[in-house]
Design brief:
Layout lengths: L7 H7 L6 E4 L3 E5 L7 E7 L14 H17 L10 E4 L15 E5 L8
Antiparallel strand pairs: 1-2, 2-3, 3-5, 4-5
The chain binds adenosine monophosphate and zinc ion.
Length: 119
């Protein structure tokens, strides 16, 4: 599996930086955002170091499909309300103009009663 020794999210996957786990399997890890914008705010990441959504190709289709399928399940598990009154946002900031700060692909899942701090 591709890892980057200098990447904060690779360190979280490796367990060398602590995180509050939401979900884990052989290729995906999810954990609470350290600086939440919403009552429910966690990140879903591939364990492999993929830099951003601009770096995915056809070999990642199954992985991305699994992440998209997990998002609504984990949102409910973590306390987001059910559709349609509840719901959640799924966001992947990509590149500088996209607001990406951590350059390891991640999907923000945000939900819970409004107002939110941001988003
Ligand atoms: P962005 O790259 O802008 O989409 O956002 C990166 C996100 O990672 C931010 O919401 C940070 O709060 C979050 N983050 C950064 N470091 C950690 C960490 N050690 N544990 C959990 N979340 C983090
Ligand atoms: Zn990484």
């Amino acid at each position: 599996m591709t890892t980057d020794v200098n990447c904060i999210f690779c360190k979280i996957v490796a367990g060398s930086i602590p995180s509050r786990k939401v979900y884990e399997d052989n290729e995906i890890y999810a954990f609470h955002d350290i600086n939440p914008w919403a009552p429910v705010h966690f990140l879903i990441i591939p364990k492999a170091h993929i830099v951003s959504l601009a770096h995915v190709d056809s070999q990642h289709q199954a992985l991305l499909g699994r992440i998209m399928t997990l998002a609504p399940q984990l949102a409910l598990q973590e306390g987001a309300g059910a559709y349609p009154e509840g719901g959640f946002r799924l966001v992947s900031n990509t590149g500088k103009e996209g607001g990406q700060e951590v350059h390891h692909l991640h999907f923000h899942v945000m939900g819970g009663p409004r107002p939110w701090l941001r988003g």
